[in-house]
Amino acid sequence: MLPALAWALDRAFPPPMARFENAAREVTARDGRTLSVWPAAGGVWRLRTRPDDVPPHLLALLIAAEDRRFHAHPGVDPLALARAAAQWVRAGRVVSGGSTISMQAARLLEPRPRNLRSKVIEIARALQLEWRHGKAGVLEIWLTLAPQGGNLEGMRAGALAWFGRPAQALDASEAALLVALARRPEALRPDRHPEAARRARDAVLLARAPDIASAAEISLAGEVPTRRLPLPRHAPHFARDGATTSPARVTATTSPARVTATTSPARVTATTLDLDLQRATEAIAREALARLPERVSLAILVTDLRTRETRALVGGDWMNPTRAGALDLTRAVRSPGSTLKPLVYALAFETGVVTPETLMEDLPRRFGDYAPENFDRAFQGRLRIADALRQSLNQPAVALLNEVGPLRLASVMKAGGAVPRLPPGAEPSLPLALGGVGITLRELVGLYARLGDGGAGLIERRAANLASAILVQPIPGGGPAGIAWKTGTSWGGRDAWAIGMDQRHVVGIWVGRPDGTPMPNATGARLALPLLGQVFERLPPAPRQGFAPRPLNAGLAPSTDALRLLFPPPRATLPEAGRVVLRAAGGQRPLTFLVDGAPLSTDPARREASWVPPGPGFYRITVLDADGAAARTELRVR
C-alpha cells in the first residue's frame, strides 16, 4: 500500500527541475576543455557539473563537511535530524539544520523560506530525489546548483571564475573553498571577504581530519583568490552562433543529462577548435588590431588540410562597434584579389596548356574590351609560368584563364563549396582571375585546402601539386620554411589577403574595413602576410614540409589515369553563346570528342575540342580515348 501511495505522489508532484535544466550554454574545444560560455536565462553562470567533472577530493571534502553518512541514508539522516532537534530545544534556536546533501539539493532546486514547513517539504523531496536519481544524480544537482557568490552557481563555474581552470584540476585547498562558499556565498566571497573565506576554507579542510587534513597542511594552503576572473569567451563569433556546419564541423550534444529525470539536453556544443591554438591566434589578432587604423578589422581562420576541420577562428574585434565587431568577418563576402590565381594555373597545368617551365610574354594585351594591367603598371616581358605565378602578374593569369575558360574556374569554385557571387545576370568572365567575384574567407580557405590536398577531386593531383609547389617560398618578415602562400589585394585596397598552407594546415588572413571602404596603400603583403607567418609559427610543424609534386597515381598499382571530362561539368547549363571549348583529362591519346554522336574536328595531340552550339537545347557530350574508354555528360544550352 505504502509503495503504491509513494509512487502516486511522486507522479503527481514531480521534483521541480527547471533551475537545474536552465544551464548556461557551453562550447567546448576538441579535447573537451571549455572554449566559451554563455550565461543561462537570468544572467546566471550555471554550468552542468557531474561527479566525474570534479576531483575525488572535492567530493570527499563535501561529504565530510556536509553529510558524513551520505552513502548510508536514503536521503534523510534520522540521527542528524534528531541531533538538530535536541540542539534546538536546548538552545532555543536553530544550531544546526540536520540537512543532508540530498535535502540541500532539494532546497537548491526549489528555494523556500527557512521554516518548519519548508523543512518537511525538503525531507520529502530529498527522499524523492534519491529514489528517482540515486546518489550520483543528487550529487550532480548539488554540484550544478551550489551558489558560488554573485551570479555564479556550481563547482565548474566557481572553479573557472575563482581559479581560472577546470574543476577537475583543483587541489584540495581550492576545492575546500568552493565547498565552503556554497554555505554562505555572499558572506564568504573571497574578493570581498578574503579573511572570512580563508577561515571557512580551513574549516572544511579540518572536517576531514585526521584523514588528510592537518594544521601543517592548512598552513600550506595559501591565500584565497582576491578577484573574480571572467569566464572563458574564446571564438565568440562562433560560440554565439552555436551549431553550424562548414568549416568548423560542430556537433551539438543531444544526449540527455545524466540525471535521469530530466529530458532536456545538456546545452553543450562540441567543436573541432584547438583551445591553445585559439588563444594564440586571438593574441596575434589583438596585437595586430592595436596597430591597425580605428575602423579596420581582420579575420583569421586555421583549418586542417585533410579533414577540413577548423582549428582556430577569429571573426573580428569582438563587440567593438567601430569595427563592426559583432559581425563574423570569416563569413563576409569580399573580393579575393589575386588569391584565385593558383587555381587558374592549376587548371592550365591540368589541361596541358602550359607547364611551370613554359615561357610566356607578360606584355600589354587586350581580351576584347578587357585590358588587364599589373599592380605596378609595368610588364615583365618574357618569363617562366612559375615566375609569373610567384610574382602574381595579372596579364599571364588572365591569358591562362582565357585558355582554360572562366566557366571552368567557376565550376571548380562551386564544386569546392565557394559559389561565385556575381552581379545579377552576369556570367563568369576573365576578371575572375583578378578577384572579380565575391567569396568569403571560409570558402577561400576551403578551396586552398582542396588545392593543397592534391586537388581533392576538383583538380588533377599532379596539376594541384605543381601549383602548390610553385607557391612554396620564404615568408618575408619571418615564418617557418616550407609554406606555400599567396597574397591578394582587391581594387582600391579594400581587402588584404594572405593564404598559406603546409602539409597539415591551411591558414587564411583577411584585413579590411567591414563597410568596404578603400584603404589607401593597403596590400595583402603589407597587412596580412606578417600575420600569416606569426600564425604558422604557433602551429605544430607538418610531418613533411613543402609540396613536392607526387606521381599522379601515388600509392596505387600502375595504371592509366582514368579518362574524364573536365568541361563541361556534369549537368552544366550554358547561356546561348559562341564557341565552347570541351576539355578532357586522362586516357590514352588521341582523343575523340562527340556531340550527340557526331565527332568534332580535333588536334590529335590535344585534350580539347572547339564546338559552337547550333542553338538552345540539350546535348550529349562524349569523349573516347585510343583504348576505347569513354566519358559522357549532359549539357544544356539556354
TrEMBL record:
<dbReference type="InterPro" id="IPR001460">
    <property type="entry name" value="PCN-bd_Tpept"/>
</dbReference>
<feature type="domain" description="Glycosyl transferase family 51">
    <location>
        <begin position="46"/>
        <end position="205"/>
    </location>
</feature>
<keyword id="KW-0378">Hydrolase</keyword>
<keyword id="KW-0511">Multifunctional enzyme</keyword>
<dbReference type="Pfam" id="PF06832">
    <property type="entry name" value="BiPBP_C"/>
</dbReference>
<feature type="domain" description="Penicillin-binding protein transpeptidase">
    <location>
        <begin position="299"/>
        <end position="415"/>
    </location>
</feature>
<protein>
    <recommendedName>
        <fullName>peptidoglycan glycosyltransferase</fullName>
        <ecNumber>2.4.99.28</ecNumber>
    </recommendedName>
</protein>
<keyword id="KW-0808">Transferase</keyword>
<dbReference type="Pfam" id="PF00905">
    <property type="entry name" value="Transpeptidase"/>
</dbReference>
<feature type="region of interest" description="Disordered">
    <location>
        <begin position="229"/>
        <end position="256"/>
    </location>
</feature>
<dbReference type="Pfam" id="PF00912">
    <property type="entry name" value="Transgly"/>
</dbReference>
<dbReference type="InterPro" id="IPR023346">
    <property type="entry name" value="Lysozyme-like_dom_sf"/>
</dbReference>
<keyword id="KW-0645">Protease</keyword>
<keyword id="KW-0121">Carboxypeptidase</keyword>
<feature type="compositionally biased region" description="Polar residues">
    <location>
        <begin position="243"/>
        <end position="256"/>
    </location>
</feature>
<dbReference type="InterPro" id="IPR001264">
    <property type="entry name" value="Glyco_trans_51"/>
</dbReference>
<comment type="pathway">
    <text>Cell wall biogenesis; peptidoglycan biosynthesis.</text>
</comment>
<dbReference type="InterPro" id="IPR036950">
    <property type="entry name" value="PBP_transglycosylase"/>
</dbReference>
<feature type="domain" description="Penicillin-binding C-terminal">
    <location>
        <begin position="559"/>
        <end position="632"/>
    </location>
</feature>
<keyword id="KW-0328">Glycosyltransferase</keyword>
<dbReference type="InterPro" id="IPR050396">
    <property type="entry name" value="Glycosyltr_51/Transpeptidase"/>
</dbReference>
<dbReference type="InterPro" id="IPR009647">
    <property type="entry name" value="PBP_C"/>
</dbReference>
<comment type="similarity">
    <text>In the C-terminal section; belongs to the transpeptidase family.</text>
</comment>
<comment type="similarity">
    <text>In the N-terminal section; belongs to the glycosyltransferase 51 family.</text>
</comment>
<dbReference type="InterPro" id="IPR012338">
    <property type="entry name" value="Beta-lactam/transpept-like"/>
</dbReference>
